[in-house]
Amino acid sequence: MKLEPAYIADYNQSQLEGHQRKLSYWTQEVATAEPIIQKLIDFQIAIPSWALGTGGTRFGRFPSGGEPRSLEEKIADVGLLHALNRASGAISLHIPWDIPTDAEAIKQLAAQHGLRFDAMNSNTFQDQPDQALTYKFGSLQHTDPAVRRQAIEHNIEVIQHGIALGSDALTVWLSDGSCFPGQLNFRKAFDRTLGSLEEIYAALPTDWKLFVEYKAFEPNFYSMTVGDWGSSFLYANKLGPKAYTLVDLGHHLPNANIEQIVAILLHEGKLGGFHFNDSKYGDDDLTAGSIKPYQLFLIFLELVDGMDARGMNHAKSLGWMIDASHNVKDPLEDLLQSVEAIQLAYAQALLVDRVALEEARETNDPVRAQELLQDAFRTDVRPLVAEAQRRAGGALNPLALYRQLNVRQKLIGERGAKTVATGL
Ligand code: AOS
Ligand code: ZN
Ligand code: ZN
Fold first, then answer.
1. How many CA atoms lie within 13 A of 49 on its CB side?
2. Phi, psi of 272 (to 5 degrees)
3. Which key words tag this protein in UniProt (predicted)?
4. pTM of the predicted model as reported, rounded to 2 decimal places
5. Where exactly are the structural domains of the chain?
6. How confident is the model at residue 64 (pLDDT cuts 50, 70, 90)?
7. Contact 190, 138 (CB under 8 A)
8. Rounded to the nearest whole angstrom, what is the distance from the C-alpha of residue 248 to the centroid of ligand 3?
9. Would you tell me which CATH number, out of the four given (3.40.190.10, 3.40.50.1220, 1.20.1250.20, 3.20.20.150), belongs to the domain 45-352?
């Protein structure tokens, strides 16, 4: 399905009067409105290829139909999202689910949609049909050097695919760990994982980054070998300047202070990328901002403050990615909601009077500090986000237009009602 620019233009025209009324407050009263809109236009969030189809749990899966059946169709879906919001100009691929048969053609297709390739993702958490050795007891940590070798080679192959597509980062997420006390020698697992990562690191092109993603539990429920930001940070430090920690918001134990983790990693120059999502209990895949929007705002405040302190470009210095899975929603609708939630949190963080905040901190005035934060959080910044999307060529309300155009029904018409996206 092709989204004609005229659809967006007509839709925006129909909404323009109401939008301008809400925006006029901002343009007339708020001096920082213009720079915030500009920053929002520049800020792009990568869509993971595996979030375009319905996920599921171990109990079942309820596909919504019209899901992408190939890498080409995944790119088309992200292209559609990007055409609607002009804020999802990148796709994050997964190998082997997205092996490109013709990298040049895939690159061209992505360029036609205005997309670039964000971090590549390797997979040593599943056994593939043609695979010689099993990852049942881990991959980069495995006791058998031959299994480690196989996992290292796979990661190097993922880097090669990424080079062909113009990506510049590899995300390594490991399910390695143990399910029962006593099963694993933690120190040996750490050293073996480090040794394997060193070989992968050595295969990175000079301008590439390696993101070490951590996760507190699942699928291993007793220990995870890269289980928290401390171990990820250790690996990244030992590996060298091209290695960074990747923070997936859903990968912490309940109530962890993620904003503080982010602040320290950024301060140390070791924060590399993000997987945005939300969680209520121990899940890691809900819509960003759907459960704890205040936490998302506090995280963005640390990001903005920390990046500014280091003179970093907000849009370009870190890998901004969504990592989600959808059980009951149309995946594309959910991704539009996630991107918007991220933009809102970013805009609210940009709104905070940070000079006054620093003053409140230095004079030990927690009441004033809280007022400054909540003042920004309670401000409706939706007109700013809508204006940024409109100026960039997108729709004033991407989700409303998506529904108005019956996109899902059209995709079902093109691809069928019983589609299974490649991947999870
Ligand atoms: C798994 O829980 C991690 O979040 C991974 O980042 C990701 O979901 C996986 O690599 C998908 O391929
Ligand atoms: Zn993740
Ligand atoms: Zn996850």
1. 31
2. -105, -40
3. Isomerase, Manganese, Metal-binding
4. 0.97
5. 45-352
6. confident
7. no
8. 7
9. 3.20.20.150
